[in-house]
């Protein structure tokens, strides 16, 4: 849902030839999605040629090093908000000193460059004023910044698209317990495409105490979730996106991501608030056995809401900070995370190359023992054209299935997809979507409720919840992906007419995964007596 349009299938991009798996993720640069027009920059295509051109025509001046500048997104006209600059470790800007960063910027090419905000892992957001006039102008500015000896690389601060807009008729108020409607948590033979969570619970697995960060639109009050939340943070920098007007703070409340026509760009329609983060959180860890509402895959896990998406989407810098903070990494300007997450749910993304700052955050989070679970995207195309799914850092990438176990019509597929999980399809039958927690407000928060959504955004938290179940059973975080893939079931339906491997190892089976871990842990604890010594 937070990827392009999670609530309805979209026309597929041109199909590519099979069997040409790239050595590293490569994607075609396409428009990143809806953005706030007043706060963002869109530039036109850059003409490229193998022949040398004059320096005044956008060519890289002699002596400059191209590997320090990434132009991902510029050629396609993707919208961005300034640049992300990576500084050399040990330099003052790398430690979050904006004054030191500013000293190396100043004005260039008629544009004032300002160090606007720190980003985790030695990065800084640099804002140009006025905005670049075209892609060549933006590239020249990035090369100018990269000339500083303390700068390791510069890239556009791209904007990921906003969550898709649901049919608000699917939102309902409180009524009787809804668990029987959660087909995605059941298992075969009743529900062939369910994740078999009930079998996992029979092993005693509930994910107790495991913190799952939902890096998304924030939290709303909901009886199915209130007791599951731990302290989170709001990393949305832009006031227009955040709607709360107070920048970074320790209140990750979802203020609503509703928009009006043209707010996110010319000819972009408006829409109601999605409460996307609340829906994702409910699938992970909604309270079970309380006689109310729905249940989550890991009903005793804890949810850490990290707010990075608002009206019209979110920037790479904000998402990078959210991932790093969730894993317990230091973020300049933010307090230390008192309860670092062991699982990071990323039901978000856009069709771009993987930004280096984002990949760095994912890699460092993995080294901290945090497992990133990432949506494959909703373009019915190659998953390697979608970021952060196409980042090279360790992760689990999730495709979506419909209720019959076929790859959902909207789901991306192929490398780097690792597994598939229920994402649902609400058309023509809304009950075939994934039921979870939402708020019923059209714009600002109102009453708690539930709704059926569809998307790889909905598939991903099923896998994040399973990861929490496995960690709660004592499995090492570095073995979670192995356990999930090696217990996956063959799809009951069809993934791709040409290859089953387009959906990774298959569909997840929570009961089988928890069962194999229970046996592994039991074997590890078993005391084997020494043989008697000969007399």
From TrEMBL:
SUPFAM superfamilies named among the record's database cross-references: Subtilisin-like
Pfam families: Peptidase_S8
Region (Disordered): 1-24, 421-441
Peptidase S8/S53 domain sequence ranges: 207-506
Localisation: Secreted
Classification lineage: Bacteria, Bacillati, Actinomycetota, Actinomycetes, Pseudonocardiales
Primary localisation category: secreted
Active site, per annotation: 216, 276, 457
Record GO cellular component, one term: extracellular region
Family: Belongs to the peptidase S8 family.
GO molecular function: serine-type endopeptidase activity
UniProtKB keywords: Hydrolase, Protease, Secreted, Serine protease, Signal, Zymogen
Biological process according to GO: proteolysis
UniProt entry tagged with the keyword Signal: yes
Protein name in the entry: Serine protease
């Amino acid at each position: 849902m937070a990827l392009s349009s999670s609530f309805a299938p979209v026309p597929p991009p041109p199909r590519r030839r099979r069997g040409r798996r790239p050595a590293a993720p490569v994607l075609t640069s396409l428009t990143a999605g809806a953005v706030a027009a007043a706060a963002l920059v869109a530039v036109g295509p850059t003409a490229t040629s193998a022949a040398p051109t004059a320096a005044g025509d956008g060519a890289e001046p002699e002596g400059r090093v191209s590997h320090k500048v990434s132009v991902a997104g510029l050629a396609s006209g993707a919208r961005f908000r300034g640049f992300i600059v990576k500084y050399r470790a040990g330099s003052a800007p790398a430690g979050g000193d904006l004054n030191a960063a500013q000293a190396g910027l100043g004005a260039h090419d008629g544009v004032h460059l300002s160090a606007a905000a720190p980003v985790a892992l030695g990065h800084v957001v640099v804002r140009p004023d006025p905005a670049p006039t075209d892609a060549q102008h933006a590239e020249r500015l990035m090369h100018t910044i990269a000339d500083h000896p303390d700068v390791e690389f510069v890239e556009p601060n791209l904007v990921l698209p906003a969550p898709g807009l649901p049919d608000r008729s699917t939102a309902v108020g409180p009524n009787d317990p809804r668990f029987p409607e959660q087909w995605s948590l059941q298992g075969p033979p009743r529900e062939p495409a369910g994740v078999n969570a009930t079998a996992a619970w029979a092993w005693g697995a509930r994910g107790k105490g495991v913190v799952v960060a939902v890096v998304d639109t924030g939290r709303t009050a909901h009886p199915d979730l209130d007791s599951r939340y731990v302290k989170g943070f709001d990393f949305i920098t832009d006031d227009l996106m955040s709607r709360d007007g107070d920048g970074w703070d320790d209140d990750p409340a979802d203020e609503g991501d509703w928009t009006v026509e043209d707010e996110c760009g010319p000819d972009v329609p408006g829409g109601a608030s999605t409460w996307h983060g609340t829906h994702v959180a409910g699938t992970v860890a909604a309270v079970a056995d309380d006689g109310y509402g729905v249940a989550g895959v890991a009903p005793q896990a804890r949810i850490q809401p990290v707010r990075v998406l608002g009206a019209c989407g979110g920037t790479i810098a904000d998402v990078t900070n959210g991932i790093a903070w969730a894993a317990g990494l230091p973020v300049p300007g933010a307090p230390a995370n008192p309860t670092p997450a062991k699982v990071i749910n990323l039901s978000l993304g856009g069709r771009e190359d993987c930004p280096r700052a984002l990949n760095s955050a994912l890699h460092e989070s993995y080294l901290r023992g945090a497992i990133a679970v990432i949506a494959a995207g909703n373009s019915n195309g190659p998953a390697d054209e979608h970021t952060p799914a196409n980042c090279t850092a360790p992760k689990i990438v999730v495709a979506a299935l419909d209720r019959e176990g076929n790859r959902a019509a909207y789901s991306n597929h192929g490398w780097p997809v690792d597994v598939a999980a229920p994402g649902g399809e609400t058309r023509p039958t809304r009950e075939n979507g994934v039921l979870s927690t939402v708020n019923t407000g059209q714009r600002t928060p109102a009453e708690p409720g539930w709704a059926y959504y569809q998307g790889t955004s909905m598939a991903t938290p099923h896998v994040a919840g399973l990861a929490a179940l496995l960690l709660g059973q004592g499995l090492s975080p570095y073995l979670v992906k192995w356990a999930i893939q090696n217990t996956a079931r063959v799809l009951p339906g069809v993934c791709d007419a040409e290859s089953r491997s387009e959906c990774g190892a298959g569909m997840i089976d929570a009961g089988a995964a928890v069962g194999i871990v229970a046996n592994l842990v039991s074997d590890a604890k078993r005391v084997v007596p020494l043989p008697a010594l000969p007399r």
